[in-house]
């Protein structure tokens, strides 16, 4: 006797996503989804325009047949608003219908494939005559909800939730509550250049602002941003490592490119009090790399860059270097993150197989560097924290014992021998002096590029986003900013 399947009742105010889409939801890259059949307001498991829904990520897949509901990750949820629902035959879908879809659904063929995989459908179950529901939505930021914290930035500092960074030079010079200021947030205290560069510009051109860098944790973003919205003297600022790939979810608006990159390093407070996110990291590094090769009479196009890491900064840089027509290979400890980043770039630029950004695991570093023109570390190896003592050319086994670090060095030195002598060794991590990666590269007579030129170039773009109108009115140019920042950074 055939068992009759009773469809489970699922919360109508939730929308479920597979774990694969978590990063794209986190960066708000997905704004359109497809569901098989009709999912309009009066349909089973349907949605209505204007409905407020919570996006959830599935931890354990459910089954109507077995009567088992799905289980969701407790660590993730995003509030979204349904903007539009429409039913179409797959064969009638147009290119614009795929705007805002996940990176693996960009046309009719890929839609059939992915719906088949997700809903366990046979290849013949989905044809051009099959109907799907297109659901478009927007993300509701913290500004759209009752404020979760009534604390000011000063109160957050008094409670120790945020702390003035002690290591950066000239940090918080002239900073005070009640005076116009910009603020940058980082996860670890390190010798960042932002405070000394921004405060040097303010002093050089007698601008009535000050810059301060605070140390905190990304888990405090909602209350930090609530405090910034209340702060009448806050003009903008930025986010460093630990915050960049988390901030977009809580901002009021995010620039299109920053959304595609999946990370925000600059925040501008608009005239109507909204917090708007941008990303200048990629522009900054690409420009510094172009300047390096331009001195040799060379261009970036066609050169191979092996990019180690796939976090927020890596996302921005990978997009920017792909735009400059470099042959980009992204290698990461978690290969799925590298794969997702490569796929997003290839879809965004419409690259063919020959042009496409490649990806792989960190175990492939020794193979990929053999014909590299640039080997770039954008991982956290060598940065402050538990990976500080490791080199990026080999895996890092924790805990950071002498034996584990020594093994990482042994393997990394073997990889160094495979890198062609004309290649540039680059590291975006800032430290007092050279990072271990750059120091060893210099010992081996490689050309090197540290993170300072990138910080200067991206700093100019970031500061222009925050103060551009004011500076133009005073006759200050981007070149003026660059010269002051360059001197302040000691480059």
Structure description:
- The protein has 491 residues and is an alpha/beta fold.
- It has 15 helices and 19 strands.
- The protein has helices at 22-26, 108-118, 153-158, 194-204, 221-230, 244-247, 256-261, 281-294, 312-323, 335-349, 365-368, 402-416, 436-443, 452-473, 478-488; strands at residues 14-17, 32-36, 52-60, 71-72, 78-89, 131-139, 163-164, 181-186, 210-215, 234-239, 253-254, 266-269, 275-278, 304-308, 327-332, 358-361, 374-377, 424-427, 447-449.
- The strands form three sheets. It has a seven-stranded mixed beta sheet with strand order 7-9-8-10-12-13-11.
- Helix 4 (194-204) crosses helix 15 (478-488), helix 8 crosses helix 14 and helix 14 (452-473) packs across helix 15.
- The longest helix is centred in the last third of the chain and has 22 residues, at 452-473.
Into which percent range does the helicity of residues fall? 25-40%
Give me the CATH architecture of the largest domain, please.
3-Layer(aba) Sandwich
Which stretches of 5+ consecutive residues score pLDDT under 50? 1-7, 142-148
For the largest beta sheet, what order do the strands appear in spatially? 7-9-8-10-12-13-11
Query: What is the H level of CATH, i.e. the homologous superfamily of the largest domain?
Result: NAD(P)-binding Rossmann-like Domain
The percent range for strand residues is 15-25%
What is the straight-line distance between the termini?
79 Å
Which CATH class of the largest domain is shown? Alpha Beta
- CATH topology-level fold name of the largest domain: Rossmann fold
Total domain modules: 3
Main pleated sheet: 7 strands, mixed
What is the overall number of helices? 15
Radius of gyration, in Å, reads 24 Å
């Amino acid at each position: 006797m055939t068992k009759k399947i009773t469809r489970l009742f699922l919360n109508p105010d939730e929308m479920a996503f597979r774990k694969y889409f978590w990063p794209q939801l986190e960066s708000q890259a997905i704004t359109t989804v497809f569901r098989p059949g009709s999912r309009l307001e009066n349909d089973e498991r349907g949605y209505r325009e204007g409905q407020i829904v919570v996006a959830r990520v599935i931890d354990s897949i459910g089954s109507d047949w077995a009567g088992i509901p799905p289980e969701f990750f407790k660590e993730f949820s995003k509030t979204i608003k349904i903007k539009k629902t429409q039913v179409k035959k797959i064969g009638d879908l147009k290119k614009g219908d795929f705007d805002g879809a996940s990176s693996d659904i960009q046309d009719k063929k890929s839609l059939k494939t992915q719906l088949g995989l997700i809903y366990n459908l046979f290849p013949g179950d989905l044809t051009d005559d099959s109907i799907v529901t297109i659901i478009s939505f927007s993300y509701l930021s913290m500004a759209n909800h009752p404020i979760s914290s009534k604390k000011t930035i000063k109160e957050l500092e008094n409670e120790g939730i945020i702390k003035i960074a002690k290591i950066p030079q000239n940090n918080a010079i002239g900073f005070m509550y009640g005076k116009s200021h910009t603020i940058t947030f980082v996860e670890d205290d390190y010798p960042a250049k932002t405070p000394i560069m921004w405060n040097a510009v303010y002093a050089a051109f007698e601008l009535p602002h000050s810059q301060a860098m605070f140390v905190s944790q990304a888990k405090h973003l909602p209350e930090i941003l609530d405090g910034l919205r209340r702060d009448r003297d806050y003009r903008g600022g930025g986010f460093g490592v630990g915050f960049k790939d988390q901030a977009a979810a809580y901002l009021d608006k995010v620039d299109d490119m920053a959304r595609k990159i999946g990370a925000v390093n600059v925040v501008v407070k608009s005239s109507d009090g909204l917090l708007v996110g941008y990303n200048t990291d990629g522009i900054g590094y690409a420009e510094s790399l172009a300047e390096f090769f331009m001195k040799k009479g060379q261009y970036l196009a066609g050169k191979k860059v092996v990019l180690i890491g796939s976090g927020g900064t890596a996302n921005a840089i990978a997009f920017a270097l792909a735009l400059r027509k470099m042959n980009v290979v992204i290698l990461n400890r978690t290969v799925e993150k590298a794969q997702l980043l490569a796929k997003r770039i290839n879809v965004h630029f419409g690259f063919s197989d020959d042009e496409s950004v490649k990806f792989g695991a960190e175990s492939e570093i020794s193979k990929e560097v053999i014909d590299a023109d640039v080997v770039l570390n954008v991982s956290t190896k060598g940065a402050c924290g538990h990976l500080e003592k490791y080199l990026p050319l080999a895996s890092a086994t924790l805990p950071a014992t002498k034996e584990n670090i020594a093994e990482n060095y042994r393997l990394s030195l073997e990889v160094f021998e495979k890198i062609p002598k004309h290649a540039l060794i680059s590291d975006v991590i800032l430290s007092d002096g050279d990072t271990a990666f750059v120091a060893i590269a210099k010992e081996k007579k490689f050309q090197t590029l540290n993170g300072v030129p990138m910080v200067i170039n991206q700093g100019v773009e970031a500061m222009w986003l925050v103060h551009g109108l004011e500076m133009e009115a005073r006759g200050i140019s981007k070149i003026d900013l660059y010269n002051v920042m360059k001197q302040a950074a000691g480059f």
